[in-house]
Design brief:
With 501 residues, the protein is α+β, with helices and mostly antiparallel strands. Helix content is 26%, strand content 23%. The chain contains 13 helices and 19 strands. The strands form five sheets. A six-stranded mixed sheet has the order 10-11-12-9-5-13, sandwiched between helices. A six-stranded antiparallel beta barrel has the order 14-17-16-15-18-19. Strands 7-6-8 form a three-stranded antiparallel sheet, covered by helices on one side. Strand 3 and strand 4 form a beta hairpin. The longest helix is centred in the first third of the chain and has 18 residues. The termini are far apart. The N terminus is likely disordered. It comes from Neogobius melanostomus. Belongs to the GcvT family. InterPro entries: FAD/NAD-bd_sf, FAO_M, GcvT/YgfZ/DmdA, GcvT/YgfZ_C, GcvT_C, GCVT_N, TrmE/GcvT-like.
Length: 501
Amino acid sequence: MVSQCLCIKNILSICLSESFTADHKPLMGEAPEVRGYFLGCGFNSAGMMLGGGCGRELAHWIIHGRPEKDMYGYDIRRFHHSLTDNNRWIRERSHESYAKNYSVVFPFDEPLASRNMRRDPFHKALTEQGCVFQERHGWERPGWFNKDGAAPVKDYDYYGAYDTPKNANYKYNELLGKEYTFSFPPHHDVIKNECLTCRNGVAVFNMSYFGKFFLTGPDAKKAADWLFTADVNKKPGDTYYLAIGGGVAEHNWNHISTVLQDQGFRCQLADHSEDMGMISIQGPKSRAVLQEVLDTDLSNEAFPFSTHKVVNAAGHQVRAMRLSFVGELGWELHIPKDSCMPVYNAVMAAGAKHGIINSGYRAIDSLSIEKGYRHWHADLRPDDTPLEAGLAFTCKLKSTIPFQGKIVCFTIDEKMPMFGLEAIFRNGVPVGHLRRSDYGFYIDKTIGYGYIRNPDGGVVSADFIRSGEFTLERMGVTYKAKAHLKTPFDSENKRVKGIYD
């Protein structure tokens, strides 16, 4: 019977069309357009292999409203609705998915198909300054900045198929090819410079791909209380501005919309993601730069951490938020679309004497893990709790209750890259794996975060962590690791408060 099934499968794969999706992963979950309509399709010639587990999770999803396991990577809501309605995006990305079916998956690969679908107001200026873009949620977001000039993304050439001429002198593709390694890439020092300039001076990050939503209406306060873990009712009001990581914007939009409908809240959710840009100015010299641009006092007393104001920047009204995802003194500027370039130019002009540079998300990834800030679906998954993740401070509770699993920071002394999924051993016994890893340039070490469990079934206490000898396994080789109860970088959280000793 098995051989007959395999034979039938082989015939089907030859004679019939197959369902390859835009990212070579299945499409599952409730359709964003129609409540109660669930998808379980697009298995990329792997339906017999994935069908059992995916079927079980889909059944749980239909009955309980969510899957039992982490299925985020298969959730249809990982794609923005403007992409799933675009025939060019579907055609090109599904072709590349099939063309690379058996390709080795390298850590920093990027698609060549269906690029430049969503571009923010800074795109042209940053391209001219050597920006090597990443594609996320359809957006072109800065990855890192090439010092050898512009490397624009070209139209998809189908790898020369269908009588399509292959792109010649394609600098972006050449730079991607140099990333096809499990070692440090040739531009490792470029990313290092972006990181250390942020740590020691000032850098600008274009974060415009973030989702930007407004929650308004008479029940907005009730909805916010229901939706968010933290107490967000600092002042009476019926409007909330939500800035959401671009890669999960569609997922968040659908979740919030579903809650508003199910709970009957009298409020509206409006998407202004395409109407606004967002830059983040970070580093010890960020205050000196922005004090020349913004018409407000930026001192700690007048503008404390985790507050925001609507201010004028170079004659344009912007929302300034004193926040940081890299662990430095800094502000985000949320800017109306038509004002983006004038404000950006003013920031760069004011920062010139301070050595300001553009930096990308490769630097953000390094800086954030060095500081211990969590990334959604890299460090955090739907099946984690805030307590396990060390995020109890974001919740309306205080607790010292021990728990079964805990996210722990690890560093190794060897100059060896790690990328996540490396096994964690305690006293020679496997206790977990790294969720995310990168190189921390300020501490000059590879750093990673992973959840560990007590193999005896007990709690993971501070003593359990301190008393163990840990190793990390990368490609069959183990490396001695040091476990940290706090981030090894600025554990007292001084730098975000503007305290530089």
